[in-house]
Amino acid sequence: MKKKDGFKDEKYIALPIKNEIDYTKHPLINGTYITELGLYPSAKYHYRERMEGIDENIFIYCMEGSGVIELLHNKIIQLNAGEIFCIPAKTPHRYYALSENPWSIIWIHFVSDMMDLFGDDKITISSPEKKHLLQTHFINLLQISEKEFSQHHFIVISKLLSLILAETYLLEDKVSFDKQNQYLSKCIRYMNENINQELTLKQLAHHLKISQSYLSTIFKKYTQQSPIEFLIHLKIDQACKYMKMTDLKIYEIAKKVGYEDAYYFSRLFKKYTGLSPKVYRAQMEGIISNGKSG
């Protein structure tokens, strides 16, 4: 047995956006707004499948019980009490409650320009204070959404959504913080182990089994650089070591740090150090020579 709705004490609200499309262009909306939302308590037999995805993102907060979300490429997420997952727009998916302990969920269909900030992992809300805060926001959101639809209410709803998203994804619990640090450490280790390869953002993300946008977000957050910028710095740093400690020719050093084109490597080296490889090596040799005792 499968049900998409019809649960005891459920709430479902569809905002009449199509009739008031100008509301979405208001400057205070800032590209983030809700189209539908609902509360499904003890949703036994709950099942939704959309093989083409939908035009909006889907925010799912599991308050109690458990359920499963399945995405493309066999990505399967079990969502338990206190966990949140966001399905990006136009992503084929199915999700359903586990029969032995069906979930109670709050779900939101929303449009946003900020999806790159959210990543593609579930978020765990572990602190009781934060759970209470988020549930209070959701209750307010449902109550305001049930009122007569107006531009004023639409703006307030949009701002509440932005607050929920910020508190969920930008002020994360330590569990998520630790997970991001694990991704960062694992990625940097992989970069160092493959310093002689021409790695791409796609390859790095694939190695970690996360999206390219999420990987970029983590690096920007913790290093203020993109993953590729960080990788270039590692390569240039390694090249500097080769110049100081070996007699390898410039083109050989270029290959050792993943650049087949020695001219491109030289331009990149000068861009990041302010010196050409030849000048840098000459300066290093001068420093070493002057430092030797006679």
TrEMBL record:
PROSITE patterns tied to this protein: HTH_ARAC_FAMILY_2
* Superkingdom of the organism of origin: Bacteria
- The HTH araC/xylS-type domain is annotated at 185-283
Q: What are the GO MF terms of this UniProt record? A: DNA-binding transcription factor activity; sequence-specific DNA binding
Query: Which Gene3D superfamilies would you find in this protein's record?
Result: Homeodomain-like, Regulatory protein AraC
Q: Which CDD domains match?
A: cupin_MmsR-like_N
Q: Which InterPro entries match?
A: AraC-bd, Homeodomain-like_sf, HTH-like, HTH_AraC, Tscrpt_reg_AraC-type_HTH
Keyword tags: DNA-binding, Transcription, Transcription regulation
What PANTHER family is this protein classified in?
Answer: ARAC-FAMILY TRANSCRIPTIONAL REGULATOR (PTHR43280), MMSAB OPERON REGULATORY PROTEIN (PTHR43280:SF30)
Name used for this protein in its record: AraC family transcriptional regulator
- Which species does the entry assign this protein to? Listeria booriae
